[in-house]
Amino acid sequence: MSDFVRKSNGTSGFGICIDRWNFAVCLKNRKQLHFYPEERPFGIQIFGRDPERMAYAAQVLESLRPDYIEVNAGCPVPKVAGKGGGAGLLKDLPRLAKILSEVKKAIAIPMTLKCRVGWDENSINVMETLKIAEAEGADMLTVHGRTRVQGYNGFADWNLIGEVAAAARIPVVGNGDVSSVQSALEKLEKYAISGVSIGRGALHNPWLFGEIADALEGKPARDVSAQEACGIFKIYYELMAEGCESSPFGMLGRLKQLAARLCKGFEPDSSEFRQRVLTSQSLEELFENADRFAEFAQSNGIRFNPSRLVNLNGRKENSVSFDRQFKG
Prior knowledge:
Layout: H1 2-9, E1 13-19, H2 22-26, E2 42-47, H3 51-62, E3 68-73, H4 78-81, H5 93-106, E4 111-118, H6 126-135, E5 140-147, H7 158-167, E6 172-175, H8 181-190, E7 195-197, H9 200-204, H10 208-216, H11 226-242, H12 248-262, H13 271-278, H14 283-299
Parallel strand pairs: 1-2, 2-3, 3-4, 4-5, 5-6, 6-7
Helix pairs in contact: 1-10, 3-5, 5-6, 8-10, 11-12, 11-14, 13-14
């Protein structure tokens, strides 16, 4: 999906998030890291807790010629954060500093850092993280305005993001709750940030980056028809066939995930379509259901409406326990 977003909008994007050791050493899934010239600037994000392995991973991945390597200190997923990687590094800032130092020495291209504001509300340490990033030579810092414990619940603290940006000597990009053109423009105008980073919003609206770029250039708002929106399924299918996913079962599952997200832009008119797509037993059946909905939407004047994408927050349960061997 990220391939389509970047190719259709011409924006900076990441490759997949790379586990710091096995993936970088074996590169078994090299196709996942393929990118096109028009997708530049293109970065690869790495996560882990071992400084030497992170540095080695960055060095190997640099050979693929990305524009930058980003260290992930923001991933809230339990299997990552609970093992001391991702947002887990916010509980061990000296280790984060060591990782940044080793990665910086290992590569010749820019190194950036992505973090959250802290582990929980009692340990907000993003200002300390900023100082470490600057001291270790990070070229940019992206701040997600929630804690690890919040996950994707509540709202990102943009006032805090703004404070970080105002205090920084490096570019700071804000992240969290940017799901529309209006929200992006408001953040760019109100806070001293160098840009906005968009994650879940682009999964629900793949045209979002292009819409923001159009607004910044004074161009009229895009009008995405149902035919164009539903056509994304076949585009995504073709990209998967070129890339990492080749099994029909795997493709079907990914297309269903896309449908569940895309349907939010058609609510409340997409409930039947959503049900049919999610119960499709084959790729052919899914494409047929998408074509039927496109015809129905066209005949009834139904269009993709990004303004319906209001609340993209995740589940309420976000607890995580550190694995015993990764404590300390």
